[in-house]
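Incident review: delayed structure delivery

Summary: a single-chain prediction request sat in the queue longer than the usual turnaround. Root cause was a stuck worker, restarted by the on-call engineer. No data loss occurred. The affected request and its eventual output are reproduced below so the record is complete for anyone auditing the incident later.

Affected input:
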Amino acid sequence: EFRRVLFRSRVRHLDGSIRWVHILATPYRMPDGTVIWDGLSVDITDRKRAAAALKQSEEEASRMRNLLIDAIESLNDGFVLYDADDRLVLINQVARDFAPGIRKVAVPGATFTEIAKAAIETGEVKVDGLKKEEILRERLANHRTNFGKVLERMVGERWYHIREFPTREGG
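Output delivered after worker restart:
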């Protein structure tokens, strides 16, 4: 005749503060006709606060990420970010426009090696009579060793100055 009840509610604590509770209760009719409730009430205020703080933190992180991407996209220079495993994390439109032939390869998760190979294979990077394998080997060797030094490279019909800098986490 009676059903178990499960609900969450806000309640005012004895000290006047508002608390969240999770309640599970079952009503029972006594022989004299009165109804008693047998159940459990658990204070979930800390859990609710933690969930709200997590949501706020996630929203702030998303806002900061969008702000950072907007700033990177507003640069007049190309910007490319790789992670510690040399996988592409972020590339702005200016950098994508450097070498239109590699757009399909230069996507998040692609390795530096894959992108460099594609640039050489599509002819985006001029090889000046050298073997493609030599150009790739040279570029890969310079990629993690010549931090801050300018590398001049002809891409398409234009010359580019490329400078690489490591991130603290190894990207």
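Verification: The helical segments are 45-73, 93-98, 112-121, 132-143.
Action items: add queue-age alerting; document worker restart procedure.
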